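can u pls check wat happens w/ adenosine-5'-diphosphate
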Amino acid sequence: MRLIIMGPPGAGKGTQAKFIAEHFGIPAISTGDIFRANVSRGTELGVEAKRYMDAGEYVPDEVTNLMVRNRIDEPDAEPGFLLDGYPRTLAQVEELDGMIKHTGHALDAVVVLTVDQDEVVERLLQRAETDGRADDTADVIRRRQEIYGEETAPLVEVYRDRGLLIEVDGLGEVDEVTQRIFTALDVVPQS
Ligand code: ADP
């Protein structure tokens, strides 16, 4: 299975990504998690990414694309993968198309979690208290939502046109949402 999970900041992508990946026996690849791991290790990539992340801006495409390309090339991603947080721009969509084509496979489905903006701000502010993520402040959340609307929301239509889109209501209990996703994905033919 080659899958993407999308949705605005706070939609619950990371939470659901873990369950989906486990269900299909594929790795969940989260660009946000990889960036954060690099930030905490103080790598060159981390130092570069932090400047953007703390402001709620996107890390430049060249940096993100190379990182994803390397990650997808690892042996555990050979049977498939679930991407969480990538692609986020039209340029990244094209880049990913190339990467997948190169492996001789195809993208199977794109899950979009739909949520109410206000509900999501609540969730993110709560997460700020428990996880202490540097980008979960009210100002930065607003910027992340804005940039999602400008840069990433248009990708939904791209994947809808390709017939790959699966829209799932992201509101409700975590396992309710997981069940909705499984129900939708279990009928997707695997390439
Ligand atoms: P969110 O919960 O807001 O969706 P993530 O944990 O997925 O956040 O990502 C955190 C930050 O990492 C983003 O705000 C952005 O700065 C950076 N980032 C993650 N994925 C990408 C990407 N595909 N392209 C550019 N920047 C990215």
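The beta strands are 2-6, 28-30, 81-84, 109-114, 165-169.
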